[in-house]
Amino acid sequence: MLLVAGCGHGLAPPGPTGVQGRITFLGTWPSNTDFVAVALFPYEPTADDPVLPLAWQTMDAMPPGSVFDYNLSVPGGSYGFLVVAWIEQGSNIFDFDSWVILAFHADPEAPSQPGEVVVITGLIRRIDLTADLNLVPSTMHAIAAVPGGP
After folding, report:
1. Is residue 148 situated within a structural domain?
2. Are 88 and 70 in contact (CB under 8 A)?
């Protein structure tokens, strides 16, 4: 007797795995934008624990009302922080305290907190986000040169 056990995929390997979606931008891009990044972390980084993102994708400034389709390839698993962040020109991109969070995947039970992102091997998890560029503090916007000034 021959017994064959399978994983439901037959002999074919599982399909692509990761997170993808559309980011809709509200507001005007500050002129000192270096870039905006969508990033997936195992958990929310802190000053004491500045973990690197497992995957990220960057985009340059776009016209107001623009959308950006992202695709992050990651292994199946549970992730704690999916974020869209604004990074100012001249900033150290690995200094997460300098990132301005424009959007994050929220916990449905506590919308002010990051939500868990569960990715199943062989499947793409779709998460759309709305990023509000008005959250960039005005003190971080580039100041135009004053005519006749220094």
Report:
1. no
2. no
